[in-house]
Every structure is written in C-alpha cells, then in structure tokens.
Design goal:
The chain has 189 residues and is mainly beta. Helices cover 13% and strands 40% of the residues.
C-alpha cells in the first residue's frame, strides 16, 4: 500500500519531510513553539510532531529515546505507575534515513494514558517516537506520532473516535522518518 501525502518544508525550509494526507498545520490554528512543527489529522485525533530539543549528552544513544519518552509522559501527566510503557525500541540504519547528519537514529513504540486539555477523562494513546541524535549541533530531533487507541466518551476527542477510514498508518509515519532532511544547518544557531 502506497502512502499518500507530500514533502513539506519544516522550520521555514531548513528541514523537510513527507507529511501524510489529511495533515493540518496546527500553527494555523494556535501558537506553536518555534522548536516544533505540529500536524493534526483532519478527521481522526492523530497528530505528528517534529521537535528540536537539547541533545542529552549524559544519556547513551540506546537510552535516549526512552529518556525523551519519559519526558513526554511527564508533560502528558502520564508518569504515575501504569500510565505509560515502552513496547519496542529499534535502531534505524543510517542508510535507511535521509537525515545523514545524525550519529544514530531510533524508533520507540509505547503507550500512555493521557488527558487532553487538563480533562479528567483519560485516552489510551500509542506513541511512536523517532529520535535522530545530532551531537554536533547539540540537538536531538524528535518525531512523534500520537495514535489514539481508546478515547473516553467524556473526552473532548470523543467526536473523532471511530473515524479511522482515513487514519494515518505506521507506514505513513515510517515514511516521514525516512524522509526527514536537513537543508540548512543555520537552524541550529
């Protein structure tokens, strides 16, 4: 099955990546931090985030994706026991990714029980986290695919529940990971 979408500029054209069909640029709806590009699916409650964060030199490459996953869990208020878990971690071959400047690349899959907008209702979300380590730029590039599995009927996301005929797939996400490209190192200062 071929993915539908297009290559789009990120961070003012300093990077680019394949963004799957149905993606809405969230910066057109609300303010997004300068270190993030956020896309939401037009029909489902899925989202994609490309984020530039500080390189964590004290964390070994094989542990860095887990470090960032736990940081996201804290931001999602999913850090209490049983609220998050990692199900897989794989190293990505540098030959399979376009971001040739990375020293290593990883893909982690996990799950978190999260609330949206400080709601009481919890949603079960599969989180795919891609990590590209760029120590020469003191940067870790995170590429996150939030894929809700169970949405509480009390959640503001409930109207999007069950609308999966056009949902993004892991293949769409993997195409994004493989395609992310750096065009201008001035992005890192």
């Amino acid at each position: 099955m071929q993915s539908r979408g297009s290559v789009r500029p990120l961070f003012g054209g300093a990077m680019s990546a394949f963004i799957p069909h149905g993606a809405k640029d969230v910066s057109e709806l609300r303010e997004i931090p300068d270190n993030q590009e956020v896309f939401a699916h037009a029909v489902t409650d899925q989202s994609l985030i490309v984020e530039l964060v500080e390189y964590q030199a004290q964390v070994a490459d094989q542990d860095a994706a887990g470090y960032h996953f736990l940081d996201i869990a804290g931001s999602n208020k999913a850090s209490e026991p049983g609220s998050s878990n990692v199900t897989s971690l794989v190293s990505l071959s540098r030959h399979d990714v376009s971001l040739s400047q990375c020293s290593s690349a990883w893909m982690l899959t996990g799950a978190q029980c999260v609330s949206k907008f400080n709601e009481e209702a919890k949603n079960s979300v599969t989180i795919h986290l891609g990590l590209f380590r760029l120590p020469q730029f003191s940067t870790d590039v995170l590429v996150t695919f939030n894929d809700p599995q169970t949405i509480s009927s009390e959640s503001s996301s409930a109207p999007a529940a069950g609308k999966h005929e056009e949902a993004w797939t892991v293949v769409d996400y993997q195409n994004l990971l493989k395609s992310i490209t750096l065009h201008d190192t001035g992005l890192f200062g």
